[in-house]
Amino acid sequence: MLKRAAASSFLGSVIEYFDFFVYATCAAVVFKDVFFSDMSPLAGTLASLATFAAGYLARPLGGIIFGHYGDRLGRKKMLVLTMSLMGITSALIGVLPTYSTAGVLAPILLVLLRVVQGVALGGEWGGAVLMSAEHAGSRRGFWASFTNAGAPTGTLISTLVITSTIAIVGNDAFVEWGWRLPFLFSLLLLVLGLVVRAKVDESPEFVAAGERTADTGIPLLRVLKDQPRTLLLSIGVGLGAFVFQGALTTYSIAYGVQSGVPRQEILDALTISSFLSIFGIIGWSALSDKIGRLPMVIVGSVGIIGWGFALFPLIGSKSFPLIVLAMVVGQAIIHPMVYGPLAGLYTELFSTEYRYTGASLGYQIAGIGAGISPVLFAEIMRSNGGTSTVALSVVIAATAGLSIACIAMLGETKNRRLSKVGVDMVAAPAPAPAGAHRTGAA
Questions:
Q1: Any residues with CB less than 8 A from the CB of 257 and at least 6 apart, and which?
Q2: CA distances, 235 to each of 117, 239, 265, 412 (Å)
Q3: What pLDDT sits at residue 11?
Q4: pLDDT digits (tens, 9 = 90+) for 361-397
Q5: By C-alpha distance, which of 401, 397, 408, 143 is closest to 281?
Q6: Can you give the three-state secondary structure of the chain, one letter per residue?
Q7: Whose CA is closest to 5, among 142, 119, 120, 121?
Q8: Which residues, 6 or more positions from 325, have their beta carbon under 8 angstroms from its beta carbon?
């Protein structure tokens, strides 16, 4: 059942992120012509990326909504609902009218559907991670990481589907109508995902928590009351990785194309780095089970700071080998050091009775960084006329530095028993008799 839960979580994450990153790629290279054709190229790109950011802004709402019912009714029911919502919404994006046919109504509908996508993804991640981690008796980092490994897999598949579609129909036809096909393809993935997910049992930790506690209260209020500081620090821990992710998987496409790099070369580099990052996420997460989440996050964040200054010059070189180097080192080696262990880390921070809500909220608020950073980067480049990327690297470094500070304050979590987590573990403990253990410790 553990393997089945991990497979279900992985596949669910693949489907969710396939839909999410099909949108990201189209927002970077197509939607400015389809939904914002009355704007200048730079303004159209900025507006298009803003709709991409709207999905990230909606993700905490999804974490709250589905986290609430996932903590009260069960993880499995919410995961079936979030997957269905994402697949149907993506298919609807694929049949939207364009600006030339529907005017301002077209971008309005696009934003609304994007928000629904964000809500669905915000509810998916927390439940998927918990289904793996709460089934696991040991090696939580490894088993939970399959959910996070689904993100680059979804990116990889979305890139392959988009690349194949462009190759078949041609670039002009893709911009005109071919971009719709990857969105419609998500319906096939939805059917497959629902079949696999139906075969997974409910989380044993959730079942046991229900037997221990008759009424847990409102999960969101419990998180804010019992573990407010843990929640804030959990947001800071993930922020650096997500800002870097936004630079690697979204803004790098727009920046490369605007710098004169052929679109296909950027997509090819993203495909290679996405494939390799699957192994990076799982491998670094497995290592975090041995050496701890804290050292992995610190080393990875230091790497993000350094590589953030190399990324854009390497892409701007217009040399395909250097572009591949920039993406592979960034996305497949450095980023997974932080992103992979986050799945286990967030699981270990909150009580079972409101873990879905707490983990989802911390992760998804941090995830806003991946949605806002491409918009912020585009605005910075617009304001300076595209003359320097140093400010972009400074933003990446600052958020990675914040992640280091937050993980240092949270401390190590890998040995905590999930059934014993439940107080604000970074708050000062009350005086206790000699030899007593603080609640929430291993």
A1: 28, 29, 263, 266
A2: 21, 6, 34, 16
A3: 86
A4: 999 999 889 888 988 998 899 888 878 899 999 999 9
A5: 143
A6: CHHHHHHHHHHHHHHHHHHHHHHHHHHHHCHHHHCCCCCCHHHHHHHHHHHHHHHHHHHHHHHHHHHHHHHHHCHHHHHHHHHHHHHHHHHHHCCCCCHHHHCCHHHHHHHHHHHHHHHHHHHHHHHHHHHHHCCCCCCHHHHHHHHHHHHHHHHHHHHHHHHHHHHHHCHHHHHHHHCHHHHHHHHHHHHHHHHHHCCCCCCHHHHHHHHHCCCCCCHHHHHHHHCHHHHHHHHHHHHHHHHHHHHHHHHHHHHHHHCCCCHHHHHHHHHHHHHHHHHHHHHHHHHHHHHCHHHHHHHHHHHHHHHHHHHHHHHHCCCHHHHHHHHHHHHHHHHHHHHHHHHHHHHCCCCHHHHHHHHHHHHHHHHHHHHHHHHHHHHHHHHCCCCCCHHHHHHHHHHHHHHHHHHHHHCCCCCCCHHHCCCCCCCCCCCCCCCCCCCCCC
A7: 142
A8: 314
Report residue 395 as tokens. 């933003």
Contact 330, 307 (CB under 8 A): yes
Q: For the chain, give the number of residues.
A: 442
430: tokens are 């009350």
In the numeric block, the tokens 């609902």 are attached to 81
Does position 440 have pLDDT exceeding 60, yes or no?
A: no
Contact 64, 360 (CB under 8 A): yes
For 121-178, how does the pLDDT look when each residue is reduced to its tens digit (9 = 90+)? 889 888 888 888 888 878 899 999 999 998 889 878 887 888 899 889 988 898 889 9
Q: What residue type is 429 in one-letter code?
A: P
pLDDT at position 122 is 87
Its pTM stands at 0.82
> Is 408 within 8 Å of 298 (Cβ atoms)?
yes
User: What is the C-alpha separation between 267 and 256, in angstroms, rounded?
Assistant: 10
Are 363 and 342 in contact, with CB atoms under 8 Å apart? yes
